[in-house]
Amino acid sequence: MSRIIFIVLAGVLCVCCSSSCVYFYLMRRAFSPSTFAHSTTNFKSKITLQQVTVLEPGNTAPAFKVVTLDGEFVYPPLAGLKGPLIIHAFTNKSAFLECLWNSESSLTDLVQNLPESTQVLFVSLDDSSVNDALWMRDQVLRVASHRKTEVLSRLHFSPVPVFCLGNWIPSVLYSWGCSGHNCGLSQAVFTSTGWNMPVIVKRLDARYDWLMGSWSQMKHQLIDAGDGCEPAPSAAGAVAWVSEGNCSFFTKVKNMAKSNATGVLVHARPGNPIQDMNCVGDECSTPLGIPAAMVHCEPSVAQALRYGHMVNVSFQSTPSPNFFIGIDQQGALSEMGWFLYPSFKFINWQAQWFDFYEGLQTRLRDPAWVVPVFEKVQMQGQSGAVATVNLPSDMLDFDMLELDASLSCPSQRDDSCAHWDHTVQLFVCCDHFSPYCNMEMGRWITAFRRGIGRWLTDVSPLVPLLNNGRCTFTMKTVPWAMPWVVSLSLRFNKLYPFKLMSLYSGGTFDKEYNKRYQPIKFTVPASTKKVELYAVITGHGSDENGCGEFCVTSHHFLVNGAYNNTRIFDSAGSALGCAMRVGEGAVPNEHGTWLYGRGGWCDGLQVNPWRFDITTQLDMSGIEANTLLYFGLYSGQDPNPSHDPGYIVMFSYLVFYK
């Protein structure tokens, strides 16, 4: 005989037995009669328990139906797939999600900047699923009432708890469980003499790029330091218990660091949500070497401290189901990566990338002569990935060459991906006796621990590198990097570049940098119709000015002493410089500091060549010599770092067309 369990939720009666899970929605004013009528369409069905195949990223998302506050949500839509779907599972046990849903700026990003192609389904992992759905909808309505309202038709809130959905979604949420900035349950554990049980509360650590310190695994004494707006010598060697308000988070942490505290716990005022602790403006330039987090004020902890009892605190992270699932325009499941801080920006960025990828698929359907080079080949070690291929005999009839490249990981999950960002270069050699043997043909930067990157790069001016019918391609990164799985195809299409002239390479970005470059003299070959400057330039390393990765550098090609053709990396070091390039293919929500602008590159993105037509700047007669000189500057001057100079990686050419 089946054992029946009655679970009474806020507004929901869930009756569970071995073969079914049936919902009875109690009447409440939040549901309109029409909504309630639509909801009943699913009440008669029984869901038979069955063995569920574990779905992986890249698999096709099975069809499903979910009851929402506005009726039944059906996937895929009856009219067919038109855009991506993102599924977000909320739990009140997560301080990260509490902040995500209470931050005005976060909600504003969802309402104003969610791509128009995208829909979002919100569900709850908790017993309070009805109240959660109503609350989430109210939070969105509150923000949308003064702004954009069109988005509301694309946001769907389900009152059915995840554990009663009866479809594949719970399986994916649990099997894709993760830990990191946006998932897993970060907690503070308080103990005190006389307590029978520890007090465990949710916590939200301060912004990752402000306070680099991390909590140790040991127990710390907790000391009441008031509001933290003044130093507290008593906090030395302990974690400071500090109240919210009266001064900035920066001031509190700075004062506790001066007091030699080992960390700071800011407790929210009663009734206030947990906030994203961050620095503002110039505060961010002051290094502070201790960790900090925000929690709710637990009465038993406050009372014990008030009575002078010893309270200890330790820190832990409890694994949780995943909070986010993506489904792209093709119906393929996708991980959503790390949300580095509590903001719906990260949902928007993933959705923008889905739109980019859909556009890329459209471009790849255009007619082209495709030459496969690598097909899911592992790239690792000193040799990298190597392949020798035959090229089309009529190759010089084509006027376009594109590199279709992808970087994936040993398994379908992001957790198998290489952890760090590295430069990947493609070298080609078609004639071992040619000066162009093993010249760079393409460059990409790997993502932080995400395996979804795919890019199409126009390298048409480099067709002259393919000066033989059989060429060897080598794709490699630093030999110590974890493996990547690479795929690469050459795509030829129908002006024709007939000659290359190699110019300058990069080097150490120090006071000697520009001294190594001398003017190059050249004449234009007969029958040339166009001359193009082609350069691939990226800055790496970090001196005291952040050069060359995070500083603004300029790169100048002076033609005939009169024409200064300049490439400036003006977004380097900016807070969202690379996040703004997701629409171009930058991999979103990486497991690292992918957001910041860099010196000519972004993690998880190809490095685009800089191409500039200099025909009108030249003497095209073929009689008079032209001159060209390169130099690179930092803040308008020659670089002159005091220590640890960065470096510039550069390949540059003149390309002659006829």
From TrEMBL:
<dbReference type="InterPro" id="IPR014784">
    <property type="entry name" value="Cu2_ascorb_mOase-like_C"/>
</dbReference>
<dbReference type="GO" id="GO:0016715">
    <property type="term" value="F:oxidoreductase activity, acting on paired donors, with incorporation or reduction of molecular oxygen, reduced ascorbate as one donor, and incorporation of one atom of oxygen"/>
</dbReference>
<dbReference type="InterPro" id="IPR008977">
    <property type="entry name" value="PHM/PNGase_F_dom_sf"/>
</dbReference>
<dbReference type="Pfam" id="PF09112">
    <property type="entry name" value="N-glycanase_N"/>
</dbReference>
<dbReference type="InterPro" id="IPR015197">
    <property type="entry name" value="PngaseF_C"/>
</dbReference>
<dbReference type="InterPro" id="IPR053251">
    <property type="entry name" value="N-glycanase"/>
</dbReference>
<feature type="domain" description="Peptide-N-glycosidase F N-terminal">
    <location>
        <begin position="370"/>
        <end position="492"/>
    </location>
</feature>
<dbReference type="Pfam" id="PF02225">
    <property type="entry name" value="PA"/>
</dbReference>
<dbReference type="InterPro" id="IPR003137">
    <property type="entry name" value="PA_domain"/>
</dbReference>
<protein>
    <submittedName>
        <fullName>Si:dkey-256h2.1</fullName>
    </submittedName>
</protein>
<keyword id="KW-1015">Disulfide bond</keyword>
<dbReference type="Pfam" id="PF09113">
    <property type="entry name" value="N-glycanase_C"/>
</dbReference>
<dbReference type="InterPro" id="IPR015196">
    <property type="entry name" value="PngaseF_N"/>
</dbReference>
